[in-house]
Amino acid sequence: MSIHRLLPLAAVILLFTGAAPQLMAAPPADLPRPATDAAKWQGEYQGPSNYQMLIGLQVKAVGEGRFQARLFEGGLPGNGWCGDRPVHELAGTADGRLLTLRGGEWVVAIRYPYATVYHRGGSYIAGLTKVVRSSPTFGAAPPPGAIVLFDPKSPSLGELQDARLTADSLLARGAQTRRTFRDFRLHVEFRTPAMPTARGQQRGNSGIYLQRRYEVQILDSFGDAPAFNGAGSIYRTRPPNINMSFPPGQWQTYDIEFFAARFDACGTKVAPAVVSVWHNGVLIHYRFPLPNKTGAGQPEGPEAGPVLFQDHRDNVVYRYAWIVPL
Questions:
Q1: Which residues lie closer than 8 Å to 176 by C-beta, 6 or more apart?
Q2: 11, 113, 198, 300: which has the fewest C-beta neighbours closer than 10 Å?
Q3: Given 3-state DSSP classes, what are the helix, strand and coil percentages for the chain, each rounded to the nearest 5?
């Protein structure tokens, strides 16, 4: 496994390659102190196995002391696992200082911040440590020609309408750009809330509407398989190639390259809009032709359109956003 250093966004986009999220396997004393029991267990774990390969584990709280998990042979998604090796589904409950997860031939015992993986027969497979990952484009400086839409260091709302700040000076959902755009590159940093008892589209829902026509879905899909309408999806159109969601409460990034649909002089569409999306530094859509507007998006047309940070009532917040017109 190689952990890439932070790459300039321009290099990532021009090369059409994704950089692995930065994996911080901190000593236990340096891990963030969990605010709740659910937060203590929930998260990502990774470590070497007896079979000379990495094992990755994602543990998701689903309420009432229950947890679901996915065990990846090869490492965490984007850090060793890229969809080419088996994944195993597990579930369990926490009992005091121990969380035990079972599924198929696998048993995982977690004593924070360590996880031990066994076969059901009792043979030891791997020892994992809880890790916290960071997107390689988190905090990426805007390149020349960029328009800063929101910066928490100087939280001006001049580029946005219907915008409001949270109590901690982050951008709340529901804002829209005052300017309109055709072709562009967009960098957005967002955070989904922890909603362990919520399910599906009710779990940390928002979205980035390109030209207010095409939605890149924001959702707390951590610990799920890539899903139609899940995080990273082109809403109601296409699931992501890989689910790169981090746990709720962690900052995540979307880096989007968008080319608008083309229309002739008579208003007939002659070429579809095309989008590429990197989620936490990993390419999840590559030059995908959008067949039409998505969901509640506005009808397609030759005119430019704004970027909308959808208000779907859940407390999704945004930290940093900039856009480069092409």
A1: 160, 161, 162, 163, 212, 306, 307, 308, 309
A2: 11
A3: 5, 45, 50
Got the DSSP string for 263-293? E-TTS-EEE-EEEEEEETTEEEEEEEEE-S-
Give the DSSP H or E segment for 253. strand 252-259
Poorest-pLDDT segment among 43-57, 166-180, 181-195, 200-214? 200-214
Lowest mean pLDDT among 19-28, 77-86, 225-234: 19-28
Which structural domains are found in the chain, ordered by start?
22-134 (2.40.128), 147-325 (2.60.120.560)
**From the CA atom positions of the chain, what is the Rg in Å?**
20
Residue 88, both tokens: 């195993």
Report d(CA 91, CA 100) in Å as an integer: 8
| Amino acid code (one letter) for 290 | L
List Cα–Cα distances, 123 to 106, 116, 248, in angstroms: 10, 11, 33
DSSP-derived secondary structure letter, 155: -
Q: What is the pLDDT of residues 275-290, one digit of tens each?
A: 999 999 999 999 999 9
Q: How does residue 13 score in pLDDT terms, banded at 50, 70 and 90? A: very low
| pLDDT tens per residue across span 192-219 | 998 888 786 778 899 999 999 999 999 9
